[in-house]
Specification:
By secondary structure, the protein is an alpha/beta fold. The chain folds into 3 domains: 338 residues, TIM Barrel (Alpha-Beta Barrel); 57 residues, Oligo-1,6-glucosidase, domain 2, CATH 3.90.400; 79 residues, Immunoglobulin-like (Sandwich). 30% of the residues lie in helices and 15% in strands. The chain contains 17 helices and 18 strands. The strands form 4 sheets. It has an 8-stranded parallel barrel. Strand 7, helix 9 and strand 8 form a beta-alpha-beta unit. Helix 8 runs parallel beside helix 9 and helix 14 packs parallel to helix 16. The longest helix has 18 residues. The protein is globular and about 75 Å long. The two termini are 36 Å apart. The relative contact order is 0.10. The C terminus is likely disordered.
């Protein structure tokens, strides 16, 4: 049963910021038909699911302030375009997850335009309203900033009104108030519409820990009990992955009602390790997190990533160092869990905040006039001078793209690597914190993965009980082609080992 359920979970997912991915009509803005045109590319890369950042109508470039939950942003296309994308993805065995924003709306959403009219408007209770005296009495006029919101003063004026409304992220994004049964009924209708009427496969859930404000935050976890029951009744097996941007201890309880949560602690640890060139005992920390997650959900899915649309791109984090970019991919794609790639990571895209510059256009070809190239922003980091476009990387056996593609296909076909439920991970102690090594046990074939995080060649001696692991399945080290020939590992290199006589070689990238 565990194997059957695991087989239905996409092995590798791909986050698409639609505006920047691919333009199909020459207006400079990425769109749904552009995504559809690249489904063969994604299938060839080995992607099992795509997460589309918000595609609802919205006044912003990022679309996280929704004005209509039942429609498609006109810049991105039509509902027919989306249905064609969905059908094309499903034909290729690719699931589609919709980014659903249920923490807040735009101030331009009809619910809020009604709510702000008067205190007795029936939509008033869809949002949080208080007078300044009430706010002061509760001591909630200010908040400490967090990784996911830099707003200090979350209460905002409504002209001509003695009550203010609460908006954690921005005054143009008022938070919804789920003490309202009528609002819950509306959200349930939205869920059923997208799962049943349209046919999406699941949701990425924005700001999952902020569904209720901080003074009522214990309610945020119980909200997802309501939400998950609606999802399961509407479409059994639909997938939910939550953005709970917090430390592991705070994340864990959300797995009681969500299939997966993003592992931010791992993301930031990997970034630090790549910069410092030293292991942070990450395998031990992962094992501890798995034990904690399992208490809340024995079938938890650990959604892992290097970075996403809210973080500086991994390519820039490591200073554009191609060997470290490849090393980052090697670590991510050999750890247990469900990896999420941020579009363009597979070609080494760069980007640093502010946010628009971590969401720059994907480079398909070396032609600056390429009609597929989106032009809504002039890129500062990912340009034809700094990043080789996909078409150039495809034919380069040593490219970042081919490194990703080879690893993804290995992960998809190697049972020890693609086990998602009941994560199989054990440390391998090599006595050197510049080496990161771990064991992926599996009944079909167990594997050992070793990464040299440092800038110098390192000696590595496997423990006696792992001495038979000498066949090389994958290597970025010229010292090791198909067999482990020396006890040295080159800087920023990785090697995947199987027991001797029980391996099939994968072309070295």
């Amino acid at each position: 049963m565990l194997a059957d359920r695991s087989a239905r979970i996409p092995k590798v997912c791909y986050e698409i910021f639609v505006r920047s991915f691919c333009d199909s009509n020459g207006d400079g803005i990425g769109d749904l038909n552009g995504v559809t045109s690249k489904l063969d590319y994604l299938a060839d890369l080995g992607i099992g699911a795509i997460w589309l950042t918000p595609i609802h109508p919205s006044p912003s470039y990022h679309k996280y302030d929704v004005t209509d939950y039942y429609a498609i942003e006109p810049e991105y296309g039509t509902m027919d375009d989306f249905r064609r994308l969905l059908a094309g993805a499903h034909t290729r065995g690719i699931a589609v997850y919709l980014d659903l924003i249920v923490n807040h709306t735009s101030t331009l959403h009809p619910w809020f335009t009604e709510a702000r009219k008067s205190k007795d408007n029936p939509y008033r209770h869809f949002y949080w309203w208080m007078t300044q005296d009430q706010i002061d009495h509760l001591g909630i006029s200010e908040r400490e900033t967090s990784d996911d919101s830099q707003v200090v003063y979350p209460w905002h004026e409504n002209p001509g009104d003695d009550e203010k409304y609460y908006g954690l992220f921005f005054k143009g994004m008022p938070d919804l108030n789920y003490h309202s049964d009528a609002l819950r009924e509306e959200i349930a209708r939205i869920i059923r519409f997208w799962l049943n009427d349209v046919g999406v496969d699941g949701f990425r859930l924005d700001a999952a820990r902020h569904i209720y404000p901080e003074w009522d935050k214990e309610q945020s976890i119980t909200f997802w009990d309501f939400f998950s029951k609606v999802v399961e009744e509407a479409k059994p097996g639909a997938f939910t992955v939550g953005e709970v941007w917090a430390e592991t201890e705070e994340v864990a309880p959300y797995l009681r009602n969500l299939n997966a949560t993003f592992h931010f602690d791992l993301s930031f640890a990997l970034q630090r390790m790549l910069l410092a060139g030293r292991d942070e005992q990450i395998v031990d920390k992962l094992q501890a997190s798995f034990n904690l997650f399992q208490k809340y959900n024995p079938l938890f899915v650990n959604a892992i990533m290097l970075t996403n649309h809210d973080q500086e791109r991994i390519g820039s984090v490591v200073g554009g160092n191609i060997r470290k970019i490849k090393l980052a991919a090697s670590i991510l794609l050999t750890l247990p869990g469900q990896p999420y790639l941020y579009y363009g990571e597979e070609i080494g895209m760069l980007g640093m905040k502010p946010d628009p510059y971590i969401r720059e256009p994907f480079l398909w070809t070396p032609d600056p006039g390429d009609p597929q190239l989106t032009g809504w922003i002039k890129p500062e980091f990912t340009t034809l001078k700094t990043v080789a476009p996909l078409s150039a990387q495809t034919s380069d056996a040593t490219s970042v793209f081919n490194h990703y593609r080879t690893l993804i296909h290995l992960r998809n076909t190697e049972p020890a690597l693609n086990q998602i439920l009941a994560p199989n991970l054990q440390p391998v102690r090599l006595g050197d914190d510049q080496l990161l090594a771990y064991f992926r046990p599996h009944v079909d074939r167990s594997l050992i993965i070793i990464h040299n995080l440092g800038d110098t060649e390192r000696a590595m001696t496997l423990p006696d009980d792992k001495s038979l692991f000498t066949e090389v399945l994958f290597s970025t080290d010229p010292l090791h082609e198909t067999t482990l020939t020396t006890n040295r590992l080159s800087p920023h290199s990785s090697v995947i080992l199987a027991p001797a006589g029980n391996a099939r070689a994968v072309e070295k990238q």
